[in-house]
Amino acid sequence: MSTFTRRALVTAATAGAAAGVVASAPPAAAARPGPRSVFAVGEVETTMDPAATGAANAAAFMADVASAEGRQIVVPPGTYTVGQVAITGETIDVRFMPGTLLVPAASLHAVGPAGKWFQATNCDTRLHGLVVDGQNIPEGCWRSDGGELRMYDTRMTNLGFLDLTGNSTSLGTFGITVKNVQEVVVDGYVGRDFVGRKDGVYANQAGKVNHLFVYECERVTVRNLTTSGGEGEDNDFVHMLDQRATPTMHGSFENCRFLYNGQTRRCMKFQGGNWSLRDIHCYRGPDFVAVSANTDVGEQNLNCIDFAGSLGGTVRLSGSFIDATGYVVGVSHTIGPLGKVIVDNTTIVGGRKHAIRNNPEAPTVPQDIQTMGFFAAPTENESEIRDCVVKGFSRAIVVQGQRNRVVGNTIEDPVELWFQGGSSQARDFLELSGNKVHTRTPDALSVLGRCGRIDNFSNLEIYDNTLLRVMRIDPGNVLVPENTTHSTVFIDLLNASATGFARNNRAPAGTIPVRTGATGVALYQNQGHHLRPLLTTTDVGNVTGGEDNLHTHAIPPFNLNTPGAAVRTTFTGTTKSNANAKTLKVWIGSEPVMTKSLTPGIDGAWQVEVVLIAIAPTPTVPSQRYTVRLIECDTAGSGAPTVAGIAAGTTAQPSNAQIIVKTTATAVATNDVIAQVGVSESLEGRHFVFT
């Protein structure tokens, strides 16, 4: 392989002459020659000249391509001024040697087609080592329509105008534009400081800025890309767009770095197509400035990585780190319903403040909105986030579409809500499972009365989610929670039409794991602090005369909120063999539901069984039905029952508070009646939650 220096080229030509080949190298004082073959590798030298005008070098570049007939053109080191280049139907293979820089001719300083620099139409293009400094003269650098494009080790800076205002003929500022290209490969790209001509209007071309814009191509591979700086109204570092009825554009992005500032609307924007994103890193650049001290968000920043538009396709983001502190949203699917976004094994970091600023789009009214780590709009379908870490944000995860999954994530210290699911529109299926929420900052998760909320879903699967209070060691070497003021509800179900189940969700003592409201969601195996049955084995007896509590079980709030939910409580005990009168009473909440006199003069054993079934949630009355059965025998258990009884009825205990089930005894001497064992369990065969 040749070393491409001027000395090497001359040496190669001399060697060719020695072998009987006539070299075309002229004397040093002569004008630059035409293409000279380097026969060892089949390459030719460009006829462009650092001393030539932009128009001359543009003509030379086009002539080189035509005469090379597919061979690689080598551009030696130097700074070349180049005018507008347009090539059709050729094979373009150019290697720019290290030290080569292209700058635009002044004639490219124009709005519209006159501001385009390089245009390849139906060409098979390979560019190696292209380095350009746009000097804020042209609107765009390289465009390929049709054919194929492969670019390696490319650097672009300072494209777009600083002095011309945007208008209807503006094309936008683009580093690399590809349209209807079969194969796109960009490997090794560094771009910075592109400028869009702001005209106060969004979604038009004047303020559009893209380092890479790909429109309705087919196979796309992007590796080792770094972008930074710049400004504009639609300043998206990368924009993939496929508006066909069935988008077929697809590809991958790998090892990409985006350093955004307060003018970067998005780092990556996808509209249609199927995309795999791996090892994507987004950070605030050194030139990032938040709008004010009241917010972490930049002036123009919207969604860091975004699937936008109602177009088909999938974006899958994995193994990445997204510092979206300067954005309203970290990763989003903002429209739907044909596309979906899947995020896995990725860290998404956001600020703790609201997005407080003037809306960058007309009518530019003041706004104060919550930031979000992952957002899926109500119209989308089947987006999911799994095995990720979401740090900060006002609302960590918001999914409002259908068939969403939020699985196995770690949510670090969100401010207002760790999760929001659903909207005012009825939606079907949500899996919320295996997520761990760490609350740390005092007063976090306390503003809205709940830590998470779910609206208007059928077919909910909510299980194995855990709220953890981060602990610290105080000066006395004691572990204490850093945040004790979060809301008293971990997951709040707010719409009566919700159906599904909630199982094994955990929260600290004093926090309701799942509150179902008036929904049809089945609750079981959720816990306040420790998952266990309510079990009492300590002997508790009466004390002399008067009515005394024996065993007392408190069914936690909302465990009997759903119609059909049920609990069975069993109490057992003994009586002393004396002639004293003994009365046993069974209570459900504030109501005595059975009173029985026990048998004097025997060593008795008694058992009470209470079955309590929810038939309607509060405030509907009645709320529960009960059946109480009592039996007493002598302790040998060989004789017939001495006392037996059954009671049935309804009660209206508030289901949003504890429901007390207990036994009391009225006797004469202490320990005439003793309670020995108490067990409360659900009729589904699963343990209830007790703190």
UniProtKB/TrEMBL annotation:
<keyword id="KW-0732">Signal</keyword>
<dbReference type="InterPro" id="IPR006311">
    <property type="entry name" value="TAT_signal"/>
</dbReference>
<dbReference type="InterPro" id="IPR012334">
    <property type="entry name" value="Pectin_lyas_fold"/>
</dbReference>
<dbReference type="InterPro" id="IPR011050">
    <property type="entry name" value="Pectin_lyase_fold/virulence"/>
</dbReference>
<protein>
    <recommendedName>
        <fullName>Right handed beta helix region</fullName>
    </recommendedName>
</protein>
<feature type="signal peptide">
    <location>
        <begin position="1"/>
        <end position="30"/>
    </location>
</feature>
